[in-house]
TrEMBL record:
Any one cellular-component term (Gene Ontology): membrane
Species in which this protein is naturally found: Flavobacterium aurantiibacter
CDD domains, per the entry: DPM1_like
Coiled coil: none
InterPro entries: DPM1-like, Glyco_trans_2-like, Nucleotide-diphossugar_trans
Family the UniProt entry places it in: Belongs to the glycosyltransferase 2 family.
Domain Glycosyltransferase 2-like: 6-172
Recorded superkingdom: Bacteria
One example GO MF annotation: dolichyl-phosphate beta-D-mannosyltransferase activity
Gene3D superfamilies for the chain: Spore Coat Polysaccharide Biosynthesis Protein SpsA, Chain A
Key words of the record: Glycosyltransferase, Transferase
GO biological process: glycolipid biosynthetic process
Name of the molecule in the record: Dolichyl-phosphate beta-D-mannosyltransferase
């Protein structure tokens, strides 16, 4: 079995699901793919089942009963990955905002000694394509805000293109994860940071989705703003 698993959460990604899976599984590096689908009304899960006939040994599907949030989808995938003994576990969006070709750079950094690798939009400037300026500024200053509150030096704290070594996930108590949106991504990085794991940022170019609908909402932004403060307070009182 390959050492690497790419977890892709989905909700109504019918337009992207076959292309993104093929793009990952046709890379020179050997990856497995786990789709965690939240009962997409558009038939995303059925599209994955169809493709499993072509990739029976390296494409897997976990179907959940309803839309329960990005964070819980990744936690579901993390638990599955650990149960199946993968050594490197990746997070990636289904909409091609994360370039599948960049998986190899995250993988290389992890194999060279990093415990957590971030596909970073901001480590070499602002590498974002097709986002409105307001969205770029929101994301960029959110990361600055996270650095100020938490003390982490990470440039892209809300990034969702990630690689975790299994050893990192094994040390995180998933039952204590509080957040589901942007704040989930921040919380995972902060928990790894507080446990002194080596975190590396690898530059990527982030491209806004061409197909489908963004899952961003005001409640997700609110969760991130106030969630960071809660994380810092819990850490200060040894309750993280």
């Amino acid at each position: 079995m390959p050492a690497a698993l790419v977890i892709i959460p989905t909700y109504n990604e019918i337009e992207n699901i076959h292309p993104i899976i093929r793009a990952v599984l046709n890379l020179p590096e050997s990856f497995h793919v786990l789709i965690v689908d939240d009962n997409s009304p558009d038939g995303t899960a059925n599209a994955v089942r169809t493709l499993q006939q072509e990739y029976p040994d390296n494409l897997f599907l976990e179907s959940r009963q309803g839309k329960a949030g990005l964070g819980t989808a990744y936690v579901h995938g993390f638990k599955w990955a650990l149960q199946h003994k993968y050594e490197y576990i990746f997070e990636m969006d289904a909409d091609f905002s994360h370039n599948p070709n960049d998986l190899q750079y995250l993988y290389k950094a992890a194999r060279e000694g990093s415990d957590v690798v971030i596909g970073s939009r901001y480590i070499t400037g602002v590498n974002v394509v097709n986002w409105p300026l307001s969205r770029v500024l929101l994301s960029y200053f959110a990361s600055m805000y996270v650095r100020f509150i938490t003390g982490m030096t990470i440039r892209d704290a809300t990034a969702g293109f990630m690689c975790y070594k299994a050893a990192v996930l094994e040390k995180i108590d998933f039952n204590r994860i509080k957040f589901v949106g942007y704040a989930f991504q921040i919380e995972m990085k902060y928990r790894a940071y507080c446990k002194n794991f080596k975190i590396t940022e690898v530059p990527i170019i982030f491209t806004d989705r061409a197909n489908g609908v963004s899952k961003m909402s005001g409640s997700i932004i609110k969760e991130a703003v106030f969630g960071v403060i809660k994380l810092r307070i819990r850490h200060l009182f040894n309750r993280l």
